[in-house]
TrEMBL record:
It comes from the Bacteria. One of its GO terms (cellular component) is cytosol. Acts on leucine, isoleucine and valine. It is an enzyme of class 2 (transferase). Pathway: Amino-acid biosynthesis; L-isoleucine biosynthesis; L-isoleucine from 2-oxobutanoate: step 4/4; Amino-acid biosynthesis; L-valine biosynthesis; L-valine from pyruvate: step 4/4; Amino-acid biosynthesis; L-leucine biosynthesis; L-leucine from 3-methyl-2-oxobutanoate: step 4/4. Its cofactor is pyridoxal 5'-phosphate. SUPFAM superfamilies: D-aminoacid aminotransferase-like PLP-dependent enzymes. It comes from Tateyamaria omphalii. Its EC number is 2.6.1.42. This is Probable branched-chain-amino-acid aminotransferase. Coiled coil: none annotated.
Length: 285
């Protein structure tokens, strides 16, 4: 695989970053994951805008312009022959001379930027979307700025492991009795023709797929309600689903071991998945 590190395209075995990099020592960095379908980028603009917001919130400077970032994404897709898959992008505050809690001077310490591709043939045709996924619920003990897409992913990773040990696919996190989101996705329930999802705040990541799906839902005359919901309300919902750049729209058919309805995907989530895939493919660049 050819990867991109600080301005260079290199074989992955030759790519290097410093042991003093603050991403490595302090999780002082942000990331984005953009999906690729038909060799084209899905929602690139949304990811680029959110990246800039994450950087701004952490007072970090971008080492690259949006135009150049698009070129790097396209070049990596080309070099690695990606038809379906993902591009991972990470920017950290760079590697000062020594470990220090104080941010380094941006004049002397440049950010570190890394991009690599993940080839995932069959991403759009994922059989898991036909079957639906199982989630468990766990307490949300992450920090209070989940709207910033930082590389601090230890608790979400532990949550995923808890799900795996319980025979499930993912964990929905609960704060003050209400579902925040999945370990790496936004969470939704469906009641009748109404799609319910938590409103945007510092408590959740503002999903790029979420924004697109809610827009498509409204265009298709489905009702959208942005509000908190409890895990009990979710267990009694007609349907549930998640969204993210790497899973698009994925039905949830079981919560904490209890089947939702008949335990198979319903009407709304599969339809939204289809609309999302169709529309995103058309708009891909
Ligand atoms: N919520 C969390 C915690 C995530 O990590 C992600 C994606 O990685 C999402 C939601 C979904 O965001 P997007 O649709 O932009 O991939």
């Amino acid at each position: 695989r050819t990867v991109y590190v600080n301005g260079e395209y290199l074989p992955e075995t030759e790519a290097k970053v410093s042991i003093f990099d603050r991403g490595f020592l302090m999780a002082d960095g942000v990331y984005e994951v953009t999906s690729v379908l038909d060799g084209k980028l899905i929602d690139f603009d949304g990811h680029a805008v959110r990246l800039q917001r994450s950087l701004d919130e952490l007072e970090m400077q971008s080492p690259i312009s949006k135009e150049d970032l698009l070129e790097v994404h396209r070049e990596l897709v080309r070099l690695n022959g990606v038809e379906e898959g993902m591009i991972y992008l990470q920017i950290t505050r760079g590697a000062p001379d020594d470990r220090d809690f104080v941010f380094p001077d941006p004049e002397t310490t440049a950010p570190t930027i890394v991009l690599f591709t993940q080839n995932k043939p069959g991403l759009a045709d994922n059989p898991a979307a036909k079957k639906g996924m199982k989630v468990i619920s766990i307490e949300d003990i992450r920090w209070g700025r989940r709207d910033i897409k930082t590389v601090q992913l230890l608790y979400p990773s532990m949550g995923k492991m808890m799900a795996k040990k319980a025979g499930a696919d993912d964990a929905w996190m609960i704060q003050d009795g209400f579902v925040t989101e999945g370990t790496s996705n936004n969470a939704y329930i469906v009641k009748g023709n109404k799609i319910i999802t938590r409103a945007k705040s510092n408590d959740i990541l503002h999903g790029i797929t979420r924004a697109a799906v809610l827009r498509f839902a409204e265009e298709a005359q489905m009702e959208v309600e942005e509000r908190n919901f409890t895990i009990d309300e979710a267990r009694e919902a007609d349907e549930a689903f998640i969204t993210s750049a790497s899973t698009f729209v994925m039905p949830v058919v079981e919560i904490d071991g209890a089947k939702l309805g008949d335990g198979v995907p319903g009407r709304v989530a599969p339809r939204l998945r289809e609309i999302y895939l169709d529309e995103s493919r058309k708009a891909a660049i």
